[in-house]
Specification:
Layout lengths: L3 H15 L2 H21 L3 H10 L8 H9 L2 H5 L10 H13 L5 H8 L10 H12 L9 H10 L1 H18 L6 H11 L7 H8 L2
Bound molecules: fe (ii) ion (2 copies).
One fe (ii) ion binds next to α6.
Length: about 210
């Protein structure tokens, strides 16, 4: 990526202005995890860094402004009821915003930002890295299944993604919250890619 250090400084300045301290710390945890995963799975580390830094950049943007961005893109067309899922908006709006404000970013970086909360079927490697780094970064408060998710993600990315999706869906059920179609689709897609020896871990998660 051209002029990475200049771009990183520019993004950091934006994040200092737009994010609360706790969110900035989380973002840096996602960045270091994403870089480690990029090294592990042979992905460009600078792309992983930039996607991680920008993944939550729209977190505190007013909802109406976020919806304006989202309605300019394919998510807005495909899911006209997207406003019913307030926790997902920041990923979709950040992707649209970053595509306009950082035209030098690749489609892979933009998609990694766009699908970091929901996941989707057929994710590229960078998408899977940002999706899982967001979940397993070192600043996350300990919760059941976190250690399993960390180990699995570094051992086998698809199995890690499947485990995280399964835990996310279990959490949503527990909270009586609806599961977004893309997340359900993603789980249906990745659960078939789990090697047999992972089944035990996933069954344990089911029992939580
Ligand atoms: Fe997020
Ligand atoms: Fe995040």
């Amino acid at each position: 990526m051209k002029e990475y250090s200049e771009l990183r400084s520019e993004i950091m300045e934006r994040l200092h202005n737009d994010l609360k301290d706790k969110r900035l710390l989380h973002t840096l945890g996602v960045e270091s995890t994403a870089i480690a995963l990029a090294r592990r799975y042979g992905v460009d580390e600078q792309e992983a860094s930039v996607a991680a830094l920008l993944h939550d950049c729209a977190k505190y943007m007013p909802v109406e402004e976020q919806l304006k961005w989202i309605r300019q893109g394919e998510i807005g067309t495909r899911f006209p009821d997207i406003d019913q899922y307030p926790k997902l908006l920041h990923a979709f709006s950040a992707a649209e915003l970053c595509a306009v404000e950082y035209p030098q970013l690749s489609d892979q970086v933009i998609d990694a930002i766009r699908y970091h909360t929901t996941g989707r079927s057929h994710m590229g490697t960078l998408e899977k890295i940002i999706f899982s780094a967001d979940y397993i970064e070192p600043g996350r408060v300990q919760f059941s299944g976190l250690q399993e998710a960390r180990e699995r993600t570094f051992a086998d990315l698809d199995a890690g993604v499947a485990l995280i999706l399964k835990q996310t869906i279990a959490y949503l059920e527990q909270q009586d919250q609806p599961c977004f179609a893309l997340t359900q689709e993603a789980y249906e897609f990745y659960k078939d890619q789990i090697p047999e020896e992972s089944t035990i871990i996933l069954e344990n998660v089911l029992e939580l």
